Amino acid sequence: MFILREENGQGLFEYALILVLVAIIVVFILGVYGSQIANFFSRVTNEVGSIP
Predict the structure, then answer these.
(1) How much is the CA Rg of the chain, to the nearest whole Å?
(2) What local confidence, expressed as pLDDT, does residue 52 receive?
(3) Surface-to-core class of residue 40, CB atoms within 10 Å of its CB (0-12 exposed, 13-18 middle, 19+ buried)
């Protein structure tokens, strides 16, 4: 009879790996499009501030 090891931490590790990959993608996107995103939010806040 085979004795199988329990792999309790495997699921947690996979979720952590997915979160790290998503964080890397977000940082990359912000690095590429960061100034455009900042300009967009600046225009939005200026428009909202000009509403009487």
Answers:
(1) 22
(2) 76
(3) exposed
Regarding pTM above 0.85, the answer is no
- Pairwise CA distance, residues 1 & 22, whole Å: 41
Dmax (CA) for the chain in angstroms is 78
The Cα–Cα gap between 42 and 37 comes to: 9
What is the three-state SS of the chain?
A: CCCCCCCCCHHHHHHHHHHHHHHHHHHHHHHHHHHHHHHHHHHHHHHHHCCC
Name 30's Cβ contacts closer than 8 Å, sequence gap at least 6.
37
